[in-house]
């Protein structure tokens, strides 16, 4: 039996997404698009001169998985350095592919481990990673990120 | 013909009897592909168990037998489409392949810069992109017939688009994302008055109503085997002989030639001119079984059953709070696209799958349709003759469960 995908945390973030707005004065912005399902979002970050993400936000439309994932991502990014954000991106990427087992391997994922079962839903992995790829693209200065 | 008996017919489809996530499968994704009756599976299995051979080549027993079976399939397809001659039936990889063949062979040969091609707003990407590619290659222009809020083409607008520049009209008979049945007969007549040729994409139409290409008078018609209970990897291109004769080959290779020297190659006669390389022999043989099985069911009983499914499905879906049906054409086949307020179609697809229900969610390869209705995607239940009202009730239960989970 597969792990339940729609856990309470995910449903709750879908209903009340955090940091769901356009961020004025953002230093890093990117657009993410998944043509397969039409998920479409923008990720904004305000990074200060010491390379710390002071604020993060997102807006757009998509399924519950992509929305909840982006919402939880913005919450977890605040206060992290861009280097830490990139580490977190890698860990999340491994997690949703099923390559990182959060109970056995050290990681910085915290609440994000709620997505640990998504590798059992291969068609939905891209939904969970869209916001993250977009964030990564923004840090790498890519304007548009597409996941297919 | 005996009366239509859905429960008896279901027994012919082994794939209907599986369980998904511990629940009996409810398969409502027939517009994507259909299940195969046992006779099709057996035909393919028999070919590989006892009849493996290439066709049109050897003089040995197996080759002659396979060639005869392969060519008999062509006869069955000819009769299925009511085509005049067997030479007008070309086997391809599928409807998409057939459309690309027409665009690249007929289109590049007969169209020139400034000529206009008309398609509709509800085309599948496979009936958009090949024409866009042709336009880029030779500088012809693509025109699009608009649709109304019910998802029907606007015939008056179509007539306005037609001009002496119009050289080709390519249109879907039955929309895969809206279920709309288009008035292809009128479309063809109007185009012919302007001397434009007409291509009909019958991918979804093959299971909707009998097809008579002579009565329709279409110049080309395409369909895929797997959407009519046959194998994947095989499709059909019907073309009027006069066009096929005049068209250059699409691909070069074995079987499509009469003789080859380094100076000159002479092409084979129809239909082989368009069948380069070893074809999908087992699949072509399987397609024959599928068409024979399908035609034996009897149109009347099947049509009535599918109409009842469409009416029941529409009724029970609309009884759910927050459900909106996308595509409400007056002439409609048993395809129901819908959205549920507060639940993204992809979440809905995953949630009903947990109850064993297979529906399609997404843009259904018709992004312009989604754009027209200002939605990113829909959920779609597409019903075949082997579906039942009870299965639609399972879908409704699964949607209600999804609504509970989402508090929608």
Task: Describe it.
The complex is a heterodimer of chains A (about 150) and B (about 400). Chain A has about 150 residues and is of the alpha+beta class. Chain A has a single domain (about 10-145), classed as Alpha-Beta Complex (Sufe protein. Chain: A), CATH 3.90.1010. Chain A has 4 helices and 4 strands. Chain A has helices spanning about 10-15, 65-75, 80-95, 125-140; strands spanning about 30-35, 40-45, 55-60, 145. Chain A has a 4-stranded mixed beta sheet, with helices on one face. In chain A, helix 1 crosses helix 2 (about 65-75), helix 2 packs parallel to helix 4 (about 125-140) and helix 3 runs antiparallel to helix 4 (about 125-140). The longest helix of chain A has 16 residues, at about 80-95. Chain A starts with 7 loop residues before the first helix and ends with a strand. With about 400 residues, chain B is of the alpha/beta class. Chain B has 2 domains: about 5-30 and about 300-405, Aspartate Aminotransferase, domain 1, CATH 3.90.1150; about 40-295, 3-Layer(aba) Sandwich (Aspartate Aminotransferase, domain 2). The model of chain B has no long low-confidence stretch (mean pLDDT about 95). The longest helix of chain B has 21 residues, at about 60-80. The interface of A and B includes residues 1, 38, 61, 63 and 123 of A.
